[in-house]
Amino acid sequence: MVDVIAGNRFASGSEVDVGSVGQSPYSVDLATLASGTVISVWQDTQGIYASRYTSSGAAIGPEVLIAAGGRQSTVVGLADGSYAVAWLEDVPSPSGYNGSKAFVRVFDADGVALSQPTLMSSISYGSQSNLMLVALENGGFVGGWCVSASASAVRTFDGGGTPLNEDAFTSSSMASSAAAVSLADGRVLVATSTIFSPASIELRAYDPTTGVVEQQAIGQRTPAPGAYFSYPSLTRLASGEIVVSWLEILQSSAIVRGEVLTATGGPTNRSFAVSGTSSILPTVAALDDGGFVLTYSGSSQSGATVYGQVFDDAAAKVGDAFTFNAPGDVDVRNATVASIGAGDFVVSWEYRTGGNLFDASLRFYYDSTEGTNAGETLTGSPAIDILLGLGGDDTLNGLGGDDFLNGGAGADVLNGGEGSDTAIFDDSDAAVSIDLSTGKTSGGTAAGDTLNSIENVVGSAFADRLVGDSGSNRLEGGAGDDVLIGLGGDDTLDGGAGNDVLIGRGGGDTLDGGAGTDTADYSASATGVVVVLQGTQREGGDAQGDVLIDIENLRGSAFNDVLVGTNGVNVLEGLAGDDILNGGVNADTLNGGEGSDEANYAGSANAVRVNLATGQAAGGDAQGDTLISIENLRGSNGGDTLTGDARANRLLGLAGDDVLTGGAGDDLLVGGEGSDVAVFGVASGAASLRFADDGALIVTSAEGTDTLREIETLRFTDRSIAIAAFGAINTTYQRYGGRAATDGELSYWGGQIASGATVGDVRGAILADPLSARAIEGSYRELFGRAPSDAEVATWRKMFGGEADLVTLRSVILSDAAGIAYTNAAIDRLYSDYGGRAAASGEIDFWRGQLASGTTLADVREVLIGDALGANMINETYLDLFGRAAGTDEIAVWQGILRDGAEPSALRNAILSDPAGRAHTAGMIADIYTDLGGRASTAAETEVWIGLIRGGANYDTLRSAVLDDGVLGRHVSETIDTYYRDYFGRAADAGEVDAWRGIFRNGAGTDTLLETLFTHPDASAGGVVRAGGTAAADTFRLGSSEHLLIEGFDPAADLLDLRGSALANVDPLLGAREVTSLDGRIDVLLGGGDVLLTGIQLSQLSAGDFLV
Known about the structure:
By secondary structure, the chain is an alpha/beta fold. It is about 20% helix and about 35% strand.
């Protein structure tokens, strides 16, 4: 908002908060650095901090901790761009007198400490107060203070905060407050308010170089009888003259007085006064145009206003006094002011927010240019400008700086120029709509306007719609129910008064609702968000990095959101997606929208009672809540009563003795800790029960199929049954019948136990039933591979009547040599079929122990399929038969098929039924025939082997068949001998031939034989020349009748010269191929065996690597 001061050229920008959300800043002081950065120092309960701002009021980085503790801080900008901060702390004195001591510390412009905290005074005496700091042109500074029961004192420090002399007293009697300013001649003028009658203002000069205070006072200002002077303030004007102001306190009122002094502190007879019933704490700051500004507070106890007054260099008032605190601020006090260059200034004030909590704000004032009601062109400067067009079709050119442009009525053109510029519509007589991303403007004084290079917008007092762009924008709605949309960038959205909707979109945005009931809207987020109003958690999608202030309501995205309210009244809207909504205390509205949404009361201090069917919510945080489109409930840690509706509900009780009623629909009831009850609207006989594999109890009735976890009691219309009984029934069936109890068995025996039966009765019935015999037979067949005899069945059934059960039976079988042998083989087959390899002995031992404890071979199969071994088996089958790796989704599909009972042959059949798989496999068959047998396979041979591979054969099976064939096998032996003659210069002996035939059976090809012989040390006998690359660029040459082995060839630098060899004048890469060594290294073979490049892949080579 732009506030024009009546009668002068200044207008203000928006109010800027001091500190971060949750802090309680007060006792603010201001300074401007050489760079133009504004520093505010302040304190709260945690310590003293410094905040930094641009001259347009934008915060720079986080606040800087000056001191952990302390109070009454003051700050000054130093000549080199750093700043010094002084403050008071309560510390013990060596003499035993405890009082306030002054400390000082120096920081660079970025807030990095350049010194340690240093005591300002060189003498341990009295309690210090009323600190002052004055910058010197040489980069140092003067620090000063008042001493209880003594005078004011000063001391000189260098730019690093090191004291250069001893304390020097600057008043002739006891001082209550003091101020200081540097004079043009290098001295420092100190103004002290003395205590004893007359309570006057005393002026003395101090030489910071010698550390000496002039004994003769420059002047003294003495009040009339019955009054006293206090709170002096000093500033040096652009002319070098000095302004001193002070407070004259009368019996029932106070007057701010002051005068202009010469450059050396002498009188000029130019004075001023600002009267008020209780004006206090005046501060003055010089302006670049030669004048100055005065600020003062409206009351010493509970003032409601802080004031400012601009003066020219003759001490004449310029325009009216102005107020700068926000309307409604309570207990306003401690106004301060600092010049920020270009004739502009910044003010600060503090106000009470409740109890002993305070807040503080800044407001920046800039030179403004005001037009007329006719159309005109107003052009600013390279600094910050405020241009006010008023009526007519105006053109406002901001140029450089962060400008404020208000075209007023008419179709205006607002050209912001460089900087972060603001278009102002706060005087519009109707709502405005501004979209910086499209340039569209409409409504009120925005109608017909054209906005160029505008980053920020201030709306009207009506219901505005303000939209940013892809950069960082500041959008201020003002009064009215506004909609503010930031779009990209790190935006600041300030709703102001009214019920506003703030939509930050991308970037880390600050959403400040202001007065009214305001909503942070994330409905446009591309992913789900987590937003906690009573805290700082903002995660996911458009919420990432957001800061929310004075926001009451939340609107989520179309995805899965977590929205948490405050201790106030909130409206939380989840929209689409499966959302979790937690309103906290008070009567909140939780609207889940589409999806399966949860009302969460986990943080409630007391138990809640929520009924989704009736909409009633009471107790704890649920008291008074309105639930809309909520399917799921999460209770508190108390004894909650949670009731669902006709939909599928999820009711989570957490700790406490909860009562959960799912009602109609397929519900999930989780009791959590405590003794929890699940309630059903049917009789026990009308419900069937079974245990799922994961231990959950499944209850099926006319109401639906419900899943129960951590529930202790089932309450039917006719009776209640402890779930522990169902667990015991199910366990008994597993121990003696080899399976879980059926729904009917659980229901029947649950009723019987409720009527007095025991678990022993359940066991007796199972043993009398053929079920136990079938269970014994199943264990024998699984672990022994045979059926038991009738005598064995009878013996075990008798033993089951004692302490034995099926685990005992399985342990006995697996202690028998025959059982061990059979089971070991069964485990190994499963590993081969579903894991793609044989089982290790440790794996066999592990699973045999698991089988003895009740695990089945089907369980082992299930684990292998879902394990990395099963995935690898599927992938290896794809590689063998398809020639490519299996995709993640393909592996998952086949794992599912195999879990459903398919054999591994189904995978092979499916691939070989695919044309691509069949073609690749046929090619592999032909290649093996050619490599080992010396000819391609016939069509009939290919078909035979495809059929065999369908049945479980593999390429190693094929290799062995070729090697064992009388004709084909003779070819590979001849190939071995030929390679030995070529590379070793001799025939292969019988042992070498047999060894290589064995290697070929296990997957290697004849290229591996060639590579092994080529790189062997004995290969030199066959004419192989070995060459190694160096770090330099090498050129290798192939002779006319030799084999060349190159180790360390670098394609980026080296050359292979083939001129004059058998490979001259041909493409060396034509027919080149990769070969694999026995240890898996990839090499490249050129010219059918003439050149071998080790440790390189064919894809790394190009024609440029060769001279032909």
